[in-house]
Amino acid sequence: MSKQFGAAGFSATLAAMASSPDTEKPKEEISLDELSLYTTPQQKFHYVEPEKGTMEENMTTVREMTEPYITWCQGVYGVVKPKVDRTVQFGKDSSEYLRNPPKEFYPRAGVIGFAGILGLFLGRGSRMKRLIYPTTLMAVGASMYYPQEAVTIAKSTGDAVYEFTLQAYVTVEKLVTGKSAVKQEDKMMKTEMKSSNGETKQ
Question: CA of 77: how far to CAs of 69, 70, 86, 181, in Å?
């Protein structure tokens, strides 16, 4: 009987304590940032450049001295590289062509070569003849077998020769007209001087 009252009394006291208005309610919740344990003080950092050593100064001087040469070399490389690539590609194409030539290639090459040798034989005695005869005979032989290529080369060569001739004519004309214009100006100045001298004397 006393056990029952003890258990009932204990539960009654617990209920009374839970329902009593005096129990303290927890205060507002605190975030982790507000706890001093989790806050870090703000630190202000500023970058300080290290002092240059002699090695670094020497390297800077060398880089500044070599920079124009490096720039020049890069420019030359940019100009020369495409030409070298074209030459290499031409060599590859030529070797492929010579490995698998068409049937008529070797006879045509023989005729053109024979024309060159004949030109050397006919051009004995003079260096100009030795230069002109073989070149002309080889060009004629090549144009017989490759007429389209010969027409293209002739057109481009003719245009180049015409342009060169035109530029030479313009240059000579400037030189001649420049001298004649100067001479005319000198004559006019002399006549004006004579006329002014004649007027002053009168």
Answer: 12, 10, 14, 47
